[in-house]
Predict the structure of TetR family transcriptional regulator.
Amino acid sequence: MSHRAPDLLTIKFVKTKRIVTQLLCRGSGANGYAAVMTRGNDVAPARRPTRSEAREEVILGVAFELLAERGYEGVTMTLIAERARASKATIYRKWPDKPSLISAAIARRSELDSPTWEDDTGSLRGDLVAAVNSMVRLTVGAWGSQLLGLLEALRSDPSLRDKVRGQIAETTITADRMIFARARARGEKIRAAGTTYVFEVALASVFTRTLLDGRRPDEAYLTELVDNVLLPLALEP
């Protein structure tokens, strides 16, 4: 079976979608529109969020902030409603329970902060080095305390665990489609099943070193991780 790398239009759409998302989240200009670059030097206006969408952004942002401040167990729907200045009825219409809201807040933040896979370095090795560096930046940034706060909650709350697992799986699938599809298109010999484990191992290694050991992986560690662990998992011998 042949594997086709994402074409330029697909990659450009992914990048443009990310830019639009970031601009909408950060606010728009005086005329109510955020500008994004399109083909050539043209500038296209991005749609201004509706009042309902803007309210959802506030609620999700508050939920994420409280997760960092109080940990999962310390966050309640009442507390989120009070800080977001929203009614609990409004929140429950969109999110039926706390796991749904917290997982949505994590997903929303990850759209802005998660590693990107679109940039092509020209080799699988280069793409993997860039990917693990992105993972490190993520875990030492705003996400660090939230991830630690979620550890116990993920063990004790099956609903939250299932939702977060689904988000991680979606990220891994996206990375697989982008990075390994490019590698196959370049003629690199990718194992049929090896890619399933590459990002799980990478995330576990970075997470353990950064959050549990309290040490930021240096360039030597990340290079060794890619060369001695990830590439052998991904490439045919």
